[in-house]
Amino acid sequence: MSHAAISSTKPEVPFQPFHLVNEGAVGPVVLLCDHASNALPAEHGTLGLPPTDLERHIGWDVGAADVTRRLADLLQAPAVLSGFSRLLIDPNRAADDPTLVMKLSDGAIIPGNRHVTPDEVERRRATCWQPYHDAVTAMIDRVVATGEAPLVVSLHSFTPVWRGHPRPWHSGVLWDKDHRLPHALLSALRMEPGMVVGDNEPYKGQLRGDTMYRHGTQRGLPHSIIEIRQDLIDTHGGAQEWAERLARILSNILKTSPGINAVEYFGSHTDDQAKGAAQ
C-alpha cells in the first residue's frame, strides 16, 4: 500500500469545473467532494498567490478527493468532485453568500480576489459553481429515477491545528435537522478503537444554501458531511484506510437501517433563523 504524500490536484488536461466517478453507477449512495481540487483556470494564474499557498488547506481539502475516489470504487457508487479551488469560488456556499469569493483566508490575502467585481463573481458562478451543482443535481436525479432515495455523503477534511490550537477530533459528522444518517455515522465511528469524533465539530452543519442544504435538506434525502483530519489522509495509504473504514460503515448502515433510504423533509435550523430575523 502506497504511503506517498498527496500534493497538487492541478490537472494536465484542460480545466473542468467538475469530475465524475462511476458516472453510470446506480446505488444507494451518492458521494460528493466540494473542495476536491486546487486547480484554477489558466486566465486566473495563481490568483496572485505563491503556488505553495494553493497546496495548503486554503486552496482545497487535502486528501478529501483521494478518499472520495477510493470510497466510490469500494462502494461502486457515483461521485461528483469539484474541479476548481475554493479560492476561485466556494461551491459549498450559497450563491449570495458574502464568503462565496474569499478575499482573505487563514491570514493570506488573495490578490486575485481583492478587487473582484460583482460581474466577475457572477462569471465565476456561471462557469464553475453552477456547472458543479448542476452535475450534482443530475447525478442525484438519475439515481432517484430508479426509485431509490440515495444517502448523500459529502467528504471534507480539516487542519490538525487551527489558530494555534490542536484539534482533538479524528473526524467529525456535520448535520442540520435530518438526524437519520448523522446519528448512524456518529454511533459507528465512535465504536472505532481510539476514535475521537465530533458531533457538528469542528464546524456546524447548518449553513443556509450550502451543498447539503441544496441537495439534501431541500430534497428530503438523508445526508451528512464527513470531516476527516488532514494529517490522517494526506498520504495515499491514509486515504485508503479511511475509504475502507467508511465503506464498511456505510454498507453496514444500509444493511441495518432498511428505512433510511427514504424521502423525508426535516427542514433546516437556518430556515427557522431566517424566519425569526424577518419577523
Measured on Cα atoms, how large is the radius of gyration? 18 Å
Whole-Å distance between the termini? 57 Å
Strand count, sense and closure of the main sheet?
A: 7 strands, mixed
Strand order of the largest sheet: 1-3-2-6-11-9-10
Net shape: globular
Query: Which class of secondary structure composition applies to the elements?
Result: alpha/beta
Q: What is the string of SSEs from the N terminus onward?
A: EEHHEEEHHEEEEHEHEHH
How much helicity do the residues have? 25-40%
Question: Strand portion, in percent?
Answer: 15-25%
Task: Give the low-pLDDT segments.
Answer: none
Averaging pLDDT over every residue, what do you get? 92
Q: How many beta-strand elements?
A: 11
Secondary structure tally, helices: 8
Overview of the structural elements:
It is a single chain. The chain is an alpha/beta fold and 279 residues long. The protein is built from eight helices and eleven strands. It has helices spanning 51-55, 64-75, 111-114, 118-144, 180-190, 211-217, 236-256, 269-278, and strands spanning 18-21, 29-33, 79-82, 104-105, 108-109, 151-158, 161-162, 165-166, 171-174, 197-199, 223-229. The strands form three sheets. Strands 1-3-2-6-11-9-10 form a seven-stranded mixed β-sheet, with helices on both faces. A two-stranded antiparallel ribbon has the order 4-5. Strands 7-8 form a two-stranded antiparallel ribbon. A hairpin with a 2-residue loop joins strand 4 (104-105) and strand 5 (108-109). Helix 2 (64-75) crosses helix 7 (236-256). The longest helix is centred in the middle third of the chain and has 27 residues, at 118-144. The protein is globular, with a radius of gyration of 18 Å. It starts with 17 loop residues before the first strand and ends with a helix.
